[in-house]
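Incident review: delayed structure delivery

Summary: a single-chain prediction request sat in the queue longer than the usual turnaround. Root cause was a stuck worker, restarted by the on-call engineer. No data loss occurred. The affected request and its eventual output are reproduced below so the record is complete for anyone auditing the incident later.

Affected input:
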Amino acid sequence: MTRFWLGGYGPAMEGSADGIGLLAGDEGREATTLAYRGAVTETLSPSWLAQHPTLDVVYAALEADALVQAFARTGEAALSPLGDPVAVGESVCHLAVAPNGSSLIASCYGDGRVVRIGLDAAGRLVPAHGKADAAAALRAALFGDDDPDAPAATPPGDGIAASDPHAAGADRVSHAHAAAFLPDGRIATTDLGFDLVRIWKQSANGLILDHEVVLPLGTGPRHMVVHPSGHLHVVTEYSCEVFTLAAGVDGTWRVVSSTLSSPIAEIGADFPAELARSRDGQFLYTALRGSNTIATLRVRGGGDTLESVALADSGVDWPRHHFVHEGKMLVAGQRSDTVTLLDLDERTGAVRGIRHEAQVPAPTHFLPVR
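Output delivered after worker restart:
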């Protein structure tokens, strides 16, 4: 049997989930059933979940409470709090755990903070590394660490000087939305509000801003996939595109291509959420909230070019998250209180149809039970 921990929205986030849930289904490509087994924790709005790379520890972003909480698996289908929750930032919406299990990165939509939290040998949260947010990092870069009275820095976008508070676009608000650990140890984060992908270096004192990749104004970079080819694919919530980034020989990342998630996506009515890839990396998938569809893109060349392949019904309302598993796809319908299991065509990668549907309260994220 295949099982998944489920993140969800509780009443504070206009949902009906009452904790981390458990979803169970058949194994293999011929799986036909899904069943919601109820909540396994009493946790308010655990909207995003992440797994420790080697330990049976799960981390939850408690979005409504601006907290991150660790849970240890204590049975076949049981999770118990591991230590105290750690305060991060407003509307924390995404977690990424370091491949070596030394830390995790929390992205906070509400105030733009990107927070690194240390993890001890048992997987507990150890907030000794402190916080690093976009404004603080840029203030240090522009004015130096020894000037406490320096004006808050505005992240540069569209060629506008960061230190000019009257520049066009300076009234935009920072919205950190996701993080990804890069193969060289650096960290990429998206800022949906400032249309930036930031590249950070890690240090003993926290995160240090290395450089930024500026996307076109109003694109809204949201989530990312690190491709086996070494490219970074970034889906944009407002322009319905997928940007492909590559690192040069000097380590500086830049945009090498951009592709509409679907030729018939309706800008302003469709809002891409998650970006996922097939196991072999041949296909990428993004869900369009609005039309409630799944767009399939084929990865071409050496990973630097994408081609729109197909668009299909997701079977849910407001597909907030989707996950490719054993040749199928799970889709979380935040507003329909449902999860669907979709068939994928092995040759074209496209969605073939809906295999099964399960009732689940306000689902927002899937995490396989290890």
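Verification: The CA atoms of residues 200 and 210 lie 5 Å apart.
Action items: add queue-age alerting; document worker restart procedure.
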